[in-house]
């Protein structure tokens, strides 16, 4: 078993947890609310330095703590992604937390959740995965309900109930995997699957359907999505942001790890089974999410359904992975990266608007261009990116994922892509309607407003990122490719 | 050089965006300089184009998304051949005309001219792209400026029309992407030149499905019956300049796409479905003409006549021979100039009379002789009078298609008769006839920008009408290789 000297492999996680503890202590002694926010930001910066140090120290590829965790390009990709998202959420929280009194607890929980997600991205053994995943979830149940009003409490409770069931299902699936292979390590499971025979096929299929169902809750794919619209709408918006970007990314990270590293990617005898499973999830998620989103008038609820539809798009990439596409994993990673930038932009704009006009109603976005041009422009750009219209990052991401599915050479995956592109056309309707309302409609009130300096800066950064990755996608594509290569 | 053609309007748009608020009226001058420069480059390309050499010229390319990183390669690749050179020229010409006729736009002029220039870049990108994914990017890029131009600066039910345009195009092009991706997998490249050199013989889904996936987008854009309904709405509610661009160059993207991508890469499928395509074409011509006869709004009338005229393009394509294809390409150019001019004239009339209802207008010839004469010339060109460019193009189409599709061709010739009907009838009702006191004070086309735009279009119509070789030379050098592929496939 690994000793304490291997702890530096999880240095970012430790930094974040220490930060969480300090935030709680500081909250007791300090009365100034910005203090805890700065401290939380500091913890994230330290964690980022730790991650950079991991890159420079050349420990990539080493597993540690008895094989429970690994530091590789894949985990580092997600570590940086998650830290960036968490930092953005912390910064924007100064504008988005009016409804929340317990700010200290909020930041501490946020850091804890981020820490366990980073751990999740590093995990390569079932028990670590389960513990990390549950820590994330339990913290998020509290976060969803932290505003302590009716809507927020309802969101927290709904999230908790669905989450608890999902955890049970996931554990059941892990039990099957352990029972079949006699080990909890993903490498060991991969070995078993690689030499597996037809007799174990049914049990294996059952196991990974259960696992996918358990984690499907995190990714918000149909039919495990029911919590998403309510929680998105009810939770404080910074929490929603965190759920929609970070939590979803972590869910997909661990699914990639389990299914690609653990179930042997696309070349095992069960590969086609799980390819078809994800194809069905993808088709359902896209179609249901988009059709339901059309009727929404609350923007946070709309984004809830939109995130279900987008999860469907990413699941297309998972089906491609199983179909043996060598592009699949990096396509999923690239999509998650661009999706993070895009959705952050959308949510930051929503927070800015909500703070200034006190409403999340789509109709109150009328004429936003005249009231706050910068916010309206970045938000419109991000909506174009979500639709997948060039020259935005979302376009490249969609082409990348769809192309990875076509590259498998399986003709049923081409039909899945047909479903996907038709869904893109449906999604254009509600994404662009939102942009239209902002640009064309007459505002109800004409009072101009400006988001706070920090929020505005983040907004511009997200907008620039969406545009930059749409025109110069190569750097992120290369990072995604290198991260994907370490999975095998 | 082609990169300059692509970038100059975009740079112009950027300059306009950076203009200080107080100098918003200068946006039109920036737009004129940018589109003028682009037009000059397009003339240069046209003149320097080597007519005896097949293949792409003035090629600019580099690898945009590298295969080593993404596992697939997307190029930035521009080039022109005999098919795209006239289209580039047309884009340059009509963009200048569009800027000129918008000189008196006073509502948010900065944004207006910036989007107009972005539109030019997007359309130019479609005609210049030699890579399927790049082609698709420019194809979609055109949506944003078009949507905003119609919905902000349009009239009537502008937002409805703009949304309809947007959703039709997105729905049409969604499947095109699937077709492109499958082609890319099959051939291992998205490069149009390489795909043309070795068309795929089989793919993971039936080639016929790919054919229809891709063709659907182009048929919507062309447009032909039954996917044409977005066109009259978009045209009627768009500002004049946008109607000019829409009729003049955007519709051509459909015909161009069929000639550039569908026919050379999927020649066997084109042979299989030629009769169906000819039937759609013939029906569109007659149906469009009949509907045109019934229009009471001058602009809607011109819009529906486009449906009829673009039917000729598809008819020429369906003939699948060198003559028919040349006719189709020629028709795209001439329709661009003729209908562009018609929309300019309708816009001028509307600017003055503030109505487009044919029944309210009468005897305008007495008040605005210049507008009247130019309108009549453009109308005669549209109905195919010998000596004007429309005649050459339509005749070539009919010559090419008569043997292959006699019934559809005869139906289409009947469309010409109907065209004579609706155009002469309209001219009679609007321009001749007793002068109406209500229009006694209307000025003629008296601004230099209006006259310049009219003059430039008129010259191109006359030149091509009297000496078509200036264009057919170039077109044939581009069409012949395509026709050879299609006929070999059959």
Write the layout of secondary structure elements.
The complex is a heterodimer of chains A (488) and B (490).
Chain A: H1 11-29, H2 33-57, E1 62-64, E2 69-71, H3 73-96, H4 103-122, H5 126-144, H6 150-181, H7 186-194, H8 201-219, H9 227-234, H10 237-262, H11 271-294, H12 299-322, H13 328-357, H14 368-371, H15 373-387, H16 393-407, H17 411-440, H18 453-471, H19 474-485
Antiparallel strand pairs in A: 1-2
Chain B: H1 2-18, H2 27-48, E1 57-65, H3 67-70, E2 74-80, H4 84-101, H5 109-128, H6 132-141, H7 143-153, H8 158-187, H9 192-197, H10 207-221, H11 230-237, H12 240-265, H13 267-272, H14 274-293, H15 298-319, H16 322-353, H17 364-367, H18 369-382, H19 389-402, H20 406-430, H21 448-466, H22 469-489
Describe this structure in words.
The complex is a heterodimer of chains A (488) and B (490). Chain A is mostly helical and 488 residues long. Chain A is 77% helix and 1% strand. Chain A contains 19 helices and 2 strands. In chain A, strands 1-2 form a two-stranded antiparallel ribbon. Chain A is globular, with a radius of gyration of 21 Å. With 490 residues, chain B is mainly α. Chain B is built from 22 helices and 2 strands. Chain B has helices at residues 2-18, 27-48, 67-70, 84-101, 109-128, 132-141, 143-153, 158-187, 192-197, 207-221, 230-237, 240-265, 267-272, 274-293, 298-319, 322-353, 364-367, 369-382, 389-402, 406-430, 448-466, 469-489, and strands spanning 57-65, 74-80. The two termini of chain B are 37 Å apart. The chains are: A mainly alpha (488), B mainly alpha (490).
């Amino acid at each position: 078993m690994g000793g304490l000297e291997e702890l530096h492999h999880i240095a970012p996680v430790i930094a974040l947890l220490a930060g969480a503890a300090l935030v709680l202590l500081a909250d007791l002694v300090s009365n100034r609310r910005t203090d805890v926010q700065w401290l939380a930001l500091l913890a994230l910066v330290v964690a980022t330095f730790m991650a950079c140090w991991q890159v420079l120290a050349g420990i990539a590829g080493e597993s540690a703590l008895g094989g429970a965790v690994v530091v590789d390009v894949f985990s580092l990709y997600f570590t940086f992604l998650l830290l960036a998202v968490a930092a953005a959420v912390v910064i924007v929280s100064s504008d988005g937390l009016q409804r929340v009194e317990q700010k200290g607890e909020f930041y501490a929980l946020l850091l804890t959740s981020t820490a366990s997600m980073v751990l999740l991205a590093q995990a390569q053994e079932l028990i670590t995965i389960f513990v990390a995943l549950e820590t994330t979830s339990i913290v998020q149940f509290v976060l969803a309900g932290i505003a302590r009003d009716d809507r927020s409490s309802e969101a927290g409770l709904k999230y908790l109930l669905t989450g608890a069931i999902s955890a049970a299902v996931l554990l059941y699936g892990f039990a099957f995997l352990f029972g079949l292979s006699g080990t909890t390590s993903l490498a060991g499971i991969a070995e078993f699957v690689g030499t597996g025979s037809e007799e174990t096929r049914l049990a294996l299929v059952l196991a990974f359907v259960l696992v996918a169902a358990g984690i499907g809750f995190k990714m918000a794919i149909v039919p495990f999505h029911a919590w998403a619209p309510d929680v998105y709408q009810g939770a404080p918006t910074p929490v929603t942001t965190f759920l929609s970007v970070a939590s979803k990314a972590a869910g997909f990270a661990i699914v990639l790890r389990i299914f690609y590293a653990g179930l042997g990617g696309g070349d095992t005898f069960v590969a086609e089974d799980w390819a078809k499973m994800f194809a069905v999830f993808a088709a359902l998620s896209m179609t249901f999410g988009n059709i339901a989103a059309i009727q929404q008038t609350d923007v946070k609820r709309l984004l809830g359904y939109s995130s279900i539809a987008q999860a469907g798009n990413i699941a297309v990439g998972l089906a491609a992975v199983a179909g043996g596409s060598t592009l699949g994993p990096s396509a999923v990673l690239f999509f998650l990266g661009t999706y993070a930038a895009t959705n952050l932009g959308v949510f930051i704009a929503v927070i800015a608007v909500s703070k200034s006009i006190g409403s999340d109603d789509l109709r109150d976005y009328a004429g936003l261009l005249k009231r706050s041009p910068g916010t309206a422009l970045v938000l419109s750009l991000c909506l174009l990116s979500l639709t997948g219209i060039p020259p935005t990052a979302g376009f490249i991401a969609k082409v990348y994922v769809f192309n990875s599915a076509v590259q498998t050479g399986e003709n049923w995956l081409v039909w899945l892509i047909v479903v996907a592109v038709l869904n893109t056309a449906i999604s254009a309707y509600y994404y662009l309607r939102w942009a239209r309302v902002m640009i064309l409609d007459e505002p109800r009130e004409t009072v101009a407003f400006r988001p706070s300096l920090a929020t505005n800066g983040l907004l511009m950064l997200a907008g620039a990122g969406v545009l930059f990755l749409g025109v110069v996608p190569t750097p992120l594509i290369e990072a995604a490719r290198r991260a994907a290569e370490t999975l095998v | 050089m082609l990169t300059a053609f692509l970038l100059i309007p975009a740079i112009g748009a950027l300059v306009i965006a950076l203009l200080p608020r107080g100098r918003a009226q200068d946006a039109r001058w920036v737009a004129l300089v940018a589109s003028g420069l682009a037009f000059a480059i397009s003339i240069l390309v046209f003149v320097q184009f080597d007519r005896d050499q097949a293949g792409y010229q003035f090629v600019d390319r580099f690898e945009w998304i590298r295969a080593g990183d993404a596992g697939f390669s997307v190029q930035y690749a521009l080039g022109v051949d005999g098919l795209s050179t006239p289209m580039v020229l047309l884009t340059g010409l009509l963009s200048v005309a569009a800027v000129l006729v918008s000189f008196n736009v006073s509502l948010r002029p900065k944004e207006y001219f910036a989007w107009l220039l972005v539109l030019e870049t997007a359309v130019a990108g479609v005609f210049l792209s030699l890579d399927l994914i790049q082609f698709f990017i420019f194809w979609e890029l055109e949506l944003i400026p078009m949507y905003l131009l119609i919905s902000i600066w349009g009239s009537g039910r502008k937002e409805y029309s703009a949304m309809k345009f947007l959703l039709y195009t997105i729905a049409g092009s969604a499947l095109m992407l699937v077709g492109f991706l499958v082609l890319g997998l099959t051939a291992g490249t998205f490069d149009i030149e390489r795909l043309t050199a070795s068309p795929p013989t089989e793919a993971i889904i039936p080639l016929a499905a790919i054919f229809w996936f891709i063709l659907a987008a182009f048929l919507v854009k062309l447009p032909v019956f039954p996917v044409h309904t977005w066109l009259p709405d978009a045209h009627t509610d768009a500002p004049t300049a946008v109607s000019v661009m829409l009729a003049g160059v955007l519709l051509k993207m459909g015909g161009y796409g069929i000639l550039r991508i569908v026919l050379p890469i999927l020649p066997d499928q084109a042979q299989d479905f030629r009769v169906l395509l000819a039937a759609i074409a013939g029906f569109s011509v007659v149906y469009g003409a009949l509907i045109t006869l019934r229009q009471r709004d001058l602009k809607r009338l011109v819009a529906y006549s486009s449906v009829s005229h673009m039917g000729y393009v598809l008819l020429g394509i369906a003939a699948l021979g060198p003559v028919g294809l040349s006719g189709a390409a020629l028709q795209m150019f001439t329709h661009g100039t003729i209908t562009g001019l018609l929309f300019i004239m309708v816009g001028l009339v509307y600017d003055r009379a503030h109505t487009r209802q044919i029944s309210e207008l009468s005897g305008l010839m007495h008040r605005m002789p210049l507008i009247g004469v130019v309108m009549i010339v453009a109308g005669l060109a549209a109905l195919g009078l010998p000596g004007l460019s429309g005649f050459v193009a339509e005749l070539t189409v009919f010559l090419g298609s008569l043997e292959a599709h006699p019934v559809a061709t005869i139906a289409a010739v009947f469309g010409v008769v109907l065209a004579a009907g609706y155009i002469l009838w309209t001219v009679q009702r609007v321009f001749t006839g007793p002068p109406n006191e209500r229009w006694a004070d209307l000025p003629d086309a008296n601004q230099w920008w209006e006259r310049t735009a009219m003059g430039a279009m008129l010259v191109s119509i006359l030149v091509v009408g009297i000496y078509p070789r200036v264009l057919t030379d170039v077109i044939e050098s581009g069409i012949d290789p395509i026709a050879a592929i299609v006929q070999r496939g059959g």
